[in-house]
Amino acid sequence: MIDQFKGMKPSRRNFLRGAAASGAAIVGGATAARAEGEPAILEKKPWSQFLGAGVDEAPYGMPSKFEAHVRRQNVPWLTADPVSSINFTPLHELDGIITPNGLCFERHHSGVAEVDPAEYRLMINGLVDRPLVFTLQDLMRFPRENHVYFLECAANTGMEWAGSQLNGCQFTHGMIHNVMYTGVPLRLLLAEAGVKTNGKWLLTEGADASGMTRSIPMEKALDDCLVAFKMNGEALRPEQGYPVRLVVPGWEGNMWVKWLRRIEVGDEPWHHREETSKYTDLLANGQARRFTWEMDAKSVITSPSPQMPISHGPGPLTISGVAWSGRGTIPRVDVTTDGGINWQQARISGPSLDKSMHRFYLDIQWDGKPMLLQSRAHDSTGYVQPTKDQLRTVRGENSIYHNNGIQTWAVDEQGVAENVEIS
Amino acid sequence: MSKFLKIFAPASAGAASVLTMAYFLADQFVVDIPAPVRGAFIHPAQAQETATPAVIEPTPVSLPQGGLGLGRAAMPMEIAAWDIDVRPDGQGLPVGSGDVFTGEEIYIEKCSVCHGDFGEARGRWPQLAGGQGTLEHDDPVKTIGSYWPYLSTVYDYVYRAMPFGEAQSLEPDEVYAITAYLLYLNDLVDDDFELSNANFLEVDMPNADNFFMDDRAETELPIFVSADICMENCKDSVEITMHASVIDVTPDTEETAIQAAVIETAPEPAAEPETAVAEAAEAPHAADPALIAAGEAAFRQCQACHQVGDGAVNRTGPVLNGMLGRTIGSVDGFRYSNVFADAAGAGEIWTEERLSAFLANPRQAMSGTRMSFRGVRDDDEIAALIAYLESFAD
CATH fold of A298-420, please? Predict the structure, then answer.
C-alpha cells in the first residue's frame, strides 16, 4: 500500500456496520459482547413497543431509510452534461441476479423522454408488404414472452483501458443491469408487416430528442429480440424507455433503443452516428472495428470491493460477484485471492440463464493478510475472460468499448480494497 | 450468434473494401456456415448445483399466414413525418443545398456555444474538427474529419438530434449549409463550396477505409479459451503495477450519498430545519411555493445549459443566480455574444419585463444571442420560471 492512499474515506455507514477499522483486532470474528449485555437486546426498542406505519403509508413502497445510500451515481467529469450522460448501478450493494428497477443504470443522450402511453405509436415501414402502426394496446395483444437478460453498455469499464482509474465496482462495472423483460418477439411484429425478401437490416429509432438510431441485422431481429413493455413485472421505468424499449439480448446496450417508435426495414445498414462516430473500437494501428455487437464474457467481484470493504476482521468471508456473457451462460467462474498464482472454482447460486447475469460465491477463511482478488468467467462457448494485458495486446488502449478484462482488487489487512493492476 | 459473426469475419481483412462490404454481406444471411470450432469445454462438477433447468424455454410462437390483423396501415404522410433517416448511398436525402458561408452563420448561432466557433469544442462537448493523424496516438481525437466514415451520418445526425435541446428544428437547406461548413472546418472543401443532394455523394471522407467488420471471432475467440486454463502455481510472483488511488478521480460516494439520503429520508421536515429555513430566507419576495415548484419543473428545459443554486457554475450558458435586478451580461467568466456585451456596457438591467420578453422569444428580445432556444410559449410558465429564478438570489 502506498502512503497517499485516498480510497474510500471512513464513512458513517462503515462505522455503523461495526468496528470496521479495528476489524483486525477482533479475534475469531465473533461480535464482542460486553459483560453487561448488549443494549440492542436489553433495551426495549421503539419498533418493538410502538405501532408502526399502517398499510397504504407508501402505496408504492420504497426501500428502508437505512438503505438510502444504495443509489445510482454518476461520475461528473465524464460527460459534458447530465442530460447526455450515464450513471452507474451500485453493484457492490446488490445480491442475487436481478437488478431492482430503480437502481438500473441510466444512459440518456437527450434526457428522459416522457412519452404519453395514449399517444405512443410504433411504426414499421420500409421493405415490408404492409407498413403498420401499432398502439400500446395492439402490442399487448400479441403473444408475449418473459426473459431475463443483462444489458451492458459497451463502454462499461471503458475508463480503465489505460490503467486503474476508479475506485469501486459501481464505477468500473456499473453500466449493467439484469432484468426480467416481458415483451413481444420482434419477429412476430415483423411477420405481421411482412418483410420483403431483400429486407436484411432494421433501423430501430427512439422517440427521444436524440432520435436514437441503430442498425440491426435481420438475423438477430428474427432470433431473440423483444419489443418489451415490462421490466421485473411492472411497466418500464421512464428512464428505461417507458412505455416500450427494444431488447437485444447479449448485444451492447446502445442497441436496446428506448422509447422505441419506429422500425424500418432496409437492405443495407445505415451507418448512423452511434455505429460510426461512437461504438466503433479504435485499435492501436488507427483502424477501427465496427458492428462489435456481442458482449464478451466478463465478471467482477462485488464484495469485497473498494466501496464494500471487509468490516468484520479475519475468519469466515464470503467473496461474492457477478458474471455474464453475451454468447450464452456462465457455467464456471474461477476466483483467486493471491493475484492469480492459484485459483479456485467459485460456487454459482441462482438461475443460470442464457445471456443473463450469474451470481457466484467463494466462501473462505480469511487470515487477515492482504489479498489480490480476481474473478475469471468461463462461458458456455468455451470462452474465458482474458486479462487486461491480453486485451491490450490485441486492441491497444484506445478502443474505449468492450473492456472485459479481469479486474483486480487489492485488499489490505484492514479489509480496505483498492482498484489495482498487477503483473 | 457466433454463426453470424463467422459470416462477417473472413471479409474483415480486406479493409479497403469496407464501403461495399456491408452491402455485399447483407445478402449472405441465408448462407448456413458451420459454427466456429472451439476448445472443448469442461463442465465443472461444482457448478452443477444450478444446472437443473431453471426455466421452461418458451415454445416458439408463430402467427397465422398474414398475421393477426393487429395494427393499422401507416399512412404515407405519417411515414414521411417520421422517416427522416439518411444512408451512405444517399437514400433519404431531401432536395436542398447550402454553402459554407451560410453554414458558418447558422453554426455560430446554433452550434458554436457547445462545439466552439471552429469545431474545437467547449468543455467536454464533442470536438467536430481537427484531429487528423491522431488515431494511432495515445489520445486520439475522433472528429468528423479525422474519424467519421460517412458524410451522410453528419447530415442525418444534425437534422435528427441537433441543435441539442431543439432537435429537428432545422430546414434541409440549413442542414446542408451546416454540413458544408463542417467539411470546411475540417479542410475537406474550399470556402466557396456548396453542398446539395446532387453532389453529396462526391465528397470523400478521409477515414472511410479504416473501418472493418468485427473480427473477434478470428482474432480473439481462438486465443481466449478455457481449455488448459491454469489453476495452480500459475506464476512465480505478483507485483502491483498500478493504483487507482494515485489518479484519485473517484466521486466521493459515501459521504455525498449519505448526506443526500439524510435530507431525503428525514421523517419530518422539522428534522432538518436549517435547510428549509435557509432556502426560504434566500427568496426576496414572499414567493408562491407552488409557482416556484412549477418553475423548477419548467427549468428542466434550461438545465442542459444553465445552472442555478449553490455550487452553480457557468456551463454552456451562464449561472443564473441573482439574475433579477442584475446587469445583463455580467456573470464573471462567461463569454457573452455581442448583444449581451453591448447591453452590459449600457448598464441594462434584468427586470421582470425584460426577462419575460427574453424567455418568450430570445432571438427577438436579444437579436444575435447565441442561446439556441425557441422560447417559452406559455405566459404562466414564464411567470413560474421567473419565480423560480427569483428564489435564487445571490
Answer: Immunoglobulin-like (2.60.40)
Closest by CA to A316, choosing from A368, A371, A362, A364, is A364
Domain ranges for chain A, please list them. 103-289, 298-420
Q: From A352, A151, A376, select the one nearest A250 (Cα to Cα).
A: A151
Instruction: Give the span between the Cα atoms of B81 and B75, in whole angstroms.
Output: 10
Inter-chain touch A286–B135, beta carbons under 8 Å = yes
Greater confidence (A104 vs B279) lies with A104
Closest-CA residue of chain A to B215: A289
**What ipTM does this complex have?**
0.91
What global pTM score does this model have? 0.78
Burial class (CB in 10 A: 0-12, 13-18, 19+), A373: buried
Which one of B4, B18, B82 makes the best mutation probe of the A interface by having the most chain A beta carbons within 10 Å? B82
Pairwise CA distance, residues A340 & B232, whole Å: 9
Confidence at B58, pLDDT banded by 50, 70, 90? low
User: Alpha-carbon distance A71 to A60, whole Å?
Assistant: 18
Cell numbers 400479441: residue: A142
Nearest to A269 by CA among A287, A291, A249, A254: A291
A/B interface, count of CB pairs below 8 Å: 389
pLDDT digits (tens, 9 = 90+) for B189-205: 999 999 999 999 999 99
Nearest-angstrom CA–CA distance, A224 and A255: 14
- Comparing CB atoms, the residue among A193, A211, A394 nearest residue B219 is A394
Residue ranges of domains in chain B, CATH in brackets: 79-210 (1.10.760.10), 271-390 (1.10.760.10)
**Beta strand ranges found along A156-297 (DSSP E):** 176-185, 201-206, 213-217, 226-231, 234-235, 245-247, 260-266, 281-282, 288-290
In terms of pLDDT, which residue wins out, B296 or A277? A277
- Smallest Cβ distance to A351: which of B4, B54, B149? B54
DSSP 8-state assignment for residue B64: P
pLDDT digits (tens, 9 = 90+) for B278-336: 333 344 446 788 899 888 888 877 876 788 988 888 877 899 999 988 999 999 888 78
CA pair distance A204, A256, nearest whole angstrom: 9
Report chain B's C-alpha Rg in angstroms: 29
Is the Cβ of A124 closer than 8 Å to some Cβ of chain B? yes
Which CATH architecture is the domain A103-289 placed in? Answer: Alpha-Beta Complex (3.90)
